Amino acid sequence: MPPKGYIEVNELYCKACELCVEDCPQGVLALDMERLTSRGYHPAYMENPEACTACRICAVVCPDAAITVHRYEKVEAKDG
Amino acid sequence: MVVTDVPTKLVYDRPAALDPRVTHYCPGCTHGVAHRLVAEVLQEMGEVENTIGVASVGCSVFAYNYFDIDFVEAAHGRAPAMATGIKRVLPERTVFTYQGDGDLASIGMGEVVGAASRGENITIMFINNATYGMTGGQMAPTTLPGQVTSSSPTGRDVDRQGHPIQTSELLATLEGSAYIVRRSLHNAREIRRAKKAIRTAFEVQKQGLGFSLVEMLSNCPTNWGMTAVESRDWIEERMLTYYPLGDYKVSPAVAEIKV
Asked: Measured between beta carbons, which residues in chain A are less than 8 angstroms from residue B3?
């Protein structure tokens, strides 16, 4: 199944608390251990982007309002 | 990001009522969630320009920096008194306080009981994390029996140090209170329920129905000495048994509000 959307993590706000990683029901997210943000955290990123359903749970649990969720319109229409 | 040539719809964005500023809260602290819920609700109600917040003392002392909302800072525990004055002088404005348990349930207990008993038409956001966060994790009036803190290293002994105060239950007994509920911020489902409660609380004030308070169980990963994920499990396993979620006071007029 193609992804239904994607998220963007604002790395200014992300503090690598891992709550989004833990709560994503599709296992999409992980902390990027290859990079550091300007504040010294490993930011959350989409490790497995194909599985994203744009369900918004990551954004709801994010304590720093760092996550923006986008949904693909065509995919959504096709899937009903 | 996977596909780029497909039109997309923004389905979740940071609320504009939050200042574009990094908070000083520790990673994973659900104070940030509570801030975001308040910002979202006020934005959805179109009340951002009309609202005055009262910040407390504690970790949430800098709340005035994090909202794009008019704010004042109260003396420790005195936010309900300050909100009372503001609301009485400017009754058309939405007035809320944002207080932690060290501020509201300890030094400020007299103020909040007074405001509730007078039925002041204000809204209180009460963040309960069972500890004094800012000062280093000392025992608070809300600390659970047996809970280890920096000032109760062998765990809270209820015979010596008393029992935790259940603020929502206490305030619900007062005639003046209109809407008193307890919610939690430990998972997405409870966060959504908390947002609904915050919306109801602000509607109570808008319709002039009286005193409203939303208690939110929150975490303190740093002072509890655990990861953010573990601290949310701790809320679920430990705090929910002593602080059951629920609606403790919903006056008949409030029950008719649909949000």
From this structure: 2-3, 72
